[in-house]
Amino acid sequence: MYFLKSADDKTLIEFLPVQDEGLKKFIGCFGHSHICFLVDDFEKAYKYLKSQSVHFRKVRDTIQGWKSAYFDDVEGILLELMYRPKPLEKGW
Question: What's the half-sphere exposure (Cβ side, CA atoms, 13 Å) at 64?
């Protein structure tokens, strides 16, 4: 897992190499798994995307308090909407 973060901490790009066979089947391709968009207000972003007829593959809450939702863009690229109550700690 690799992270590319802007100096102002407002943009984070996650690179997640796909190695798990189950994940390869879930995303439908090999290489990197998806593009993730980090948001401050998950419910607002989720409701907006739903109002635009976005179909979500999976929505989940984690034990860390994170919320995420996976969906495809118009070209079939897997995207993720992500909320974290606290930023990732150094070393991730």
Answer: 11
The domain defined by 2-83 folds into 2,3-Dihydroxybiphenyl 1,2-Dioxygenase; domain 1 (3.10.180)
- Domain-by-domain residue ranges, the chain? 2-83
Of 20, 19, 14, 12, the residue nearest 1 (C-alpha): 14
Dihedrals φ, ψ of 22, to 5°?
-65, -40
**Are the C-beta atoms of residues 64 and 82 closer than 8 Å to each other?**
no
Q: Which residues, at least 6 apart from 41, have a Cβ–Cβ distance to it below 8 Å?
A: 83
* pLDDT single digits (tens) 70-90: 998 887 778 999 998 887 766
Whether this prediction's pTM lies above 0.85 is answered by no
